Amino acid sequence: MITSVSNERVKLIRTLQSQAKARAREKLFVIEGERLLVEAVNAHAPLRVVFHSGGLKPPQRSLLNQAARLGATVEEVSPEILKACSDTTTPSGMLAVVPWIEVPLAAPLEFVMLADGLANPGNLGTVMRTAEAFGVQAVFLMPGCVDAYNPKVVRGAMGAHFRLPLIEATWPEAQARLNGFRLYLAEAAEGTPCDQVSWRGRIGLILGSEAEGAGALAQAAATARVFIPMPGKAESLNAVVAAGILLYQAARQRRSRS
Amino acid sequence: MITSVSNERVKLIRTLQSQAKARAREKLFVIEGERLLVEAVNAHAPLRVVFHSGGLKPPQRSLLNQAARLGATVEEVSPEILKACSDTTTPSGMLAVVPWIEVPLAAPLEFVMLADGLANPGNLGTVMRTAEAFGVQAVFLMPGCVDAYNPKVVRGAMGAHFRLPLIEATWPEAQARLNGFRLYLAEAAEGTPCDQVSWRGRIGLILGSEAEGAGALAQAAATARVFIPMPGKAESLNAVVAAGILLYQAARQRRSRS
Questions:
Q1: How far is the C-alpha of B133 from the C-alpha of B37, rounded, in Å?
Q2: Inter-chain contact B133–A230, Cβ cutoff 8 Å?
Q3: CB-based contact (8 Å) between A249 and chain B?
Q4: How many beta carbons lie within 10 A of that of residue B106, not counting itself?
Q5: DSSP string, A61-103
Q6: What secondary structure letter does DSSP report for A134?
Q7: Total-model pTM
Q8: What long-range pairs does A251-257 form, CB within 8 A, spacing at least 24?
């Protein structure tokens, strides 16, 4: 049982949790909790290390056996070590080191999201989870976005990392790959109401930064601006709520073929 | 200039920030930041105390003058005191003590939300902000909800406290007041798709707890269950995103009179 923070694996995990540069160099990230480990195993992710703090029930034992078959070194650690490795104040009983996943792109690519300068990690994670729920086929991570393997993004995305392709790109790169797409920029109150545009065909939804909106390159790339009609008195919606509503509206139209 | 944490006003503010019981006893709460103070002034809230840390620009001076005309004692405090009074790690330059607001109920009451056991303060705040945006006329705070004057709720609600009636109620009380309403319970995957029910007429949307769903009394009170159709692989949506989508769908139908 590992009980020392100077253990090499412990040091690796703590570095991965806190440093985006280390995650990029090693192409690894950390997942926490049984639920995410189940998602990783279901996706046949080539797990590297699994730490747990003992007291396992039979289904958890079976989960760790599956992780081991995927290549993971499974180790029991003291609760103190798990806490030292965790990004949360109340760590769940297990965490794992996973390589960055290259989720294969669907073909044909028809419905994507572009996150421009989404700096809040909880927001990016929840947006990824929501995008997956509504059938988005890939998320383009544009300049200014928080690192998608940040522990708070991973927590909010609820396993989307294992199923949703993530593409880091500059605006010229994204525009070249999305040639022929209509790119809709989410605005607070400008442009066309979101239920008055067509969401069918090849569509990219551009989300801007929570605080400053979309950048100049995103604005230039957009083929239309859309907003959510609001009858009430509030001036704006939370960025994540707005993204959810636009994705719902898009999915609703794309589903009904009439 | 106040520089001591043993000042009576400082002690009051710190107690209000940290203790729901003190907020309920005094019927007061704390708002932080210029934006919320603008909302309070626009709502003619009878402000009690405003603390600021100096260095004011002309529009801020004018705002504090308006606050003073509404009855506030305006005081400059040291940055350390402002930090000691703040619920955030990076306090903005001002905060204020405000009485609980009794926002008058619209008549006829037709579109309400019932929050059942929403325990996460950021979630309740964002749900209140979203409810206001989509024309909800009152939010019923059912048993198990976090205190609506919790500083994180106040931050997330972005001024909804000044415009949206809040009603604390038990289930029998709410059912008596909402006699004749159709009460739709938000579910993850059970019931009727949310775009296949009628949202017109007298409607109450019931939101359950993030972790455990709605309680037994909420389930018994519901006249129908609704869910958000999701074409993708994710199992569920974040509670706040789901609430936003249902409110959007409801508002969209209620707006179009066809």
A1: 19
A2: yes
A3: yes
A4: 13
A5: HHHHHHHHHTT-EEEEB-HHHHHHH-SSSS--SEEEEEEPP-P
A6: T
A7: 0.94
A8: A251/A134, A251/A135, A251/A199, A251/B229, A251/B230, A251/B231, A251/B232, A252/B195, A252/B229, A253/A198, A253/A199, A253/A200, A254/A111, A254/A135, A254/A199, A254/A200, A254/B231, A255/B229, A255/B231
User: Under CATH, what is the fold of the domain B8-99?
Assistant: 60s Ribosomal Protein L30; Chain: A; (3.30.1330)
Q: What angle do CA B159, B165, B166 make, to 5 degrees?
A: 95
Mark yes or no for CB contact A163/B126 under 8 Å: no
The complex scores an ipTM of: 0.92
Nearest C-alpha of chain A: how many angstroms from B133? 4
DSSP conformation class of A213:
B
Q: What percentage of chain B carries pLDDT values higher than 90?
A: 89
Phi, psi of B44 (to 5 degrees): 55, 35
Residue of B nearest to A248 (CA): B245
**Contact B163/A at CB under 8 A:** yes
Domain boundary assignment for chain B: 8-99, 111-255
Cβ B133–A255 below 8 Å, yes or no?
no
Q: Are B121 and B156 in contact (CB under 8 A)?
A: yes
- Which residues lie closer than 8 Å to A146 by C-beta, 6 or more apart? A118, A119, A120, A121, A124, A153
Taking 70 as the threshold, does the pLDDT of residue B85 lie above it?
yes
Length of chain A: 258
CA A117/CA A218 separation, integer angstroms:
10
- In chain B, what residues touch A228 (CB-CB under 8 Å)? 248
> Is the Cβ of A20 closer than 8 Å to some Cβ of chain B?
no
Pick from A128, A163, A237 the residue to mutate for testing the B interface (most B CBs within 10 Å): A237
CB pairs A-B closer than 8 Å: 110
Residue A208 C-alpha from the chain's centroid: 16
Which of A201, A155, A210 is closest to A178 using CA atoms?
A201
Chain A's closest residue to B196, CA to CA, is: A252
CATH entry 1.10.10.10 includes domain A111-255: no
A130 reaches B (C-beta below 8 A): yes
Q: Is any Cβ of chain B less than 8 angstroms from the Cβ of A33?
A: no
Distance from C-alpha of A176 to C-alpha of B202, rounded to nearest angstrom: 50
* Sign of CA pseudo-dihedral B210, B245, A245, B32: negative
Encoded tokens for A248 = 């719902």
Q: What is the pLDDT of residue A209?
A: 87
Tens-place pLDDT, residues A192-248? 999 999 999 999 999 998 888 899 999 999 999 999 999 887 678 999 999 999 999
Q: Cβ of B177 under 8 Å from any chain A Cβ?
A: no
